[in-house]
């Protein structure tokens, strides 16, 4: 590893349903993070848009090769010379017979090249209450490939609802990850109850840093005037391998800076080597 210390910027967004409105805001916050010294900048799930309207998404989503947000953010990473995790983009699938979109995370290298892609594996098909339910699998095609990639450190990629599936993170860590990325658009209700404890548990179980850039606030939908406004929890979080919260992005859009001492991964794992203590068992 070139350096044991890594300066990170977590970008917190409140995206609308219009990628063209969101991009300049996102780019401005990435610039702000880089100007403050961040070498690794991360954006949330659904960086290009959040929309409840499948007809509008059909119109506005693009293939990866033609997506304007991806092209612009690759160029920006190259200009600034930073590692950039685009938490995810909603993209039109390559396969024309599948109407469902992709929820795809990208690691961009400091030369602007795509270093890794990850398609969210676990779909948020959940009825939270009588007035709030989500059927992510109706609009998105799940991935089936876990990804560890050598970025600014060895990274294990995931997205949002994946955080509830502990075995994914155990595999990522056992495959070499030292930082786990969990970009998210967590809803208010489960955010208040579960967000921090899930992220801290994943860090403690794996002895990894956890970086979780989040969407926040009430998301404007200028293209679907009558939609019930969606609210997300915010609180972008950086968690250390021993479980401490190093930084919390609060509830407003902005940049949260945090310096990681990557040696803390070995420190936590040597104190509690549970990652090497798996056993086979029978039942239940
Ligand atoms: O819909 C999009 O465009 C982008 N995808 C999301 O926002 C997804 C699916 S609705 N959100 C989550 O997974 C929240 C999980 C969550 O809140 C929990 O696990 O409690």
TrEMBL record:
EC number: 3.5.1.77
GO molecular function: acyltransferase activity; N-carbamoyl-D-amino acid hydrolase activity
Signal peptide span: none
Keyword tRNA-binding attached: no
Coiled coil (residue ranges): none
Swiss-Prot/TrEMBL keywords: Acyltransferase, Hydrolase, Lipoprotein, Transferase
Principal EC category: hydrolase
Listed Pfam families: CN_hydrolase
Domain CN hydrolase: 6-262
Keyword flag Lipoprotein: yes
Protein name: Nitrilase/cyanide hydratase and apolipoprotein N-acyltransferase
Taxonomic lineage: Bacteria, Pseudomonadati, Pseudomonadota, Alphaproteobacteria, Rhodobacterales
């Amino acid at each position: 590893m070139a350096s044991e210390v890594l300066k990170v910027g977590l970008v917190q967004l409140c995206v609308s349903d219009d990628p063209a409105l969101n991009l300049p805001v996102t780019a401005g916050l990435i610039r702000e993070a880089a100007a403050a010294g961040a070498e690794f900048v991360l954006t949330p799930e659904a960086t290009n848009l959040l929309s409840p309207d499948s007809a509008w998404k059909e119109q506005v989503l693009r293939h990866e090769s033609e997506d304007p947000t991806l092209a612009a953010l690759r160029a920006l990473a190259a200009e600034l010379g930073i590692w950039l995790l685009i938490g995810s983009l909603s993209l039109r699938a390559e396969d024309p017979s599948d109407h469902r979109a992709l929820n795809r995370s990208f690691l961009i290298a400091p030369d602007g090249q795509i270093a890794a892609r990850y398609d969210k594996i676990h779909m948020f098909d959940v009825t939270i209450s009588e007035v709030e339910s989500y059927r992510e699998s109706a609009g998105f095609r799940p991935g089936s490939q876990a990804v560890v990639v050598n970025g600014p450190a060895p990274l294990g990629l995931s997205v949002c609802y994946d955080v509830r599936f502990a075995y994914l993170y155990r595999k990522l860590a056992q495959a070499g990850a030292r930082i786990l990325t969990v970009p998210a658009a967590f809803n208010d209700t489960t955010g208040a109850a579960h967000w921090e404890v899930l992220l801290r548990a994943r860090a403690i179980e794996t002895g990894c840093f956890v970086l979780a850039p989040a969407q926040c606030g009430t998301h404007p939908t200028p293209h679907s005037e009558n939609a019930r406004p969606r609210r997300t929890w915010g609180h972008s979080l950086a968690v250390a391998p021993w479980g401490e919260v190093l930084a919390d992005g609060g509830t407003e859009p902005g940049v949260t800076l945090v310096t990681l001492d990557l040696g803390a991964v070995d420190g936590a794992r040597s104190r509690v080597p549970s990652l090497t203590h798996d056993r086979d068992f029978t039942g239940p």
